[in-house]
Design goal:
Helix content: 40-55%
Radius of gyration: 15 Å
Structural class: alpha/beta
CATH topology: 2-enoyl-CoA Hydratase, Chain A, domain 1
CATH superfamily: 2-enoyl-CoA Hydratase, Chain A, domain 1
CATH architecture: Alpha-Beta Complex
Pfam families: ECH_1 (PF00378)
Strand order of the largest sheet: 1-3-5
Strand content: 5-15%
InterPro entries: ClpP/crotonase-like_dom_sf (IPR029045), Enoyl-CoA_hydra/iso (IPR001753)
Protein name: Enoyl-CoA hydratase
Length: 140
């Protein structure tokens, strides 16, 4: 998803755990309502998250916070996820979140895809796990 030409915007209004959070980590922008809970619980089962979550999380929230998050299996509540810059913005209700994201997406869609794609590629190339890292996670 991070290599698609258009931005991928996620909205979360319920728990996103395991593979759901790994999907979120690969999205370009993440927005949640107060109902969201985010985690990678795999460590509690003696497993290694296998879809890029470990590779993405330090890039999003830093090494120490990623280790705390991944090694405990604890949930991130919406406020903490926003404080850690993992989500762009937290909303009181899903309706407020969807209204905001709809306006955001409509605004972005006004502009030529070539410019959007070029900006996204430059930003993503600056901070993105290598495909080899994600493949190693799957093997683990």
């Amino acid at each position: 998803m991070s290599n698609l030409p258009q931005p991928v915007i996620a909205t979360v209004s319920s728990p996103a755990r395991g593979i759901a959070n790994e999907f979120l980590a690969a999205c370009d922008m993440r927005f949640t309502s107060m109902n969201a809970r985010i985690s990678n619980f795999e460590v509690t089962l003696g497993l290694h998250p296998g879809a890029g979550g470990v590779a993405w999380m330090p890039l999003h929230i830093g090494r120490a916070r990623a280790l705390e998050f991944m090694l405990t299996g604890n949930d991130l509540d919406p406020e903490t996820a926003e404080k850690y810059d993992y989500v762009n913005k937290v909303f009181n209700t899903p309706d407020e979140m969807h209204d905001y994201v709809d306006r955001l997406a409509e605004r972005i869609a006004l502009f030529p895809l070539a410019g959007i794609s070029s900006i996204k590629r430059s930003v993503t190339d600056t901070i993105q796990p290598k495909l080899e890292q994600i493949a190693l996670e799957g093997a683990e």
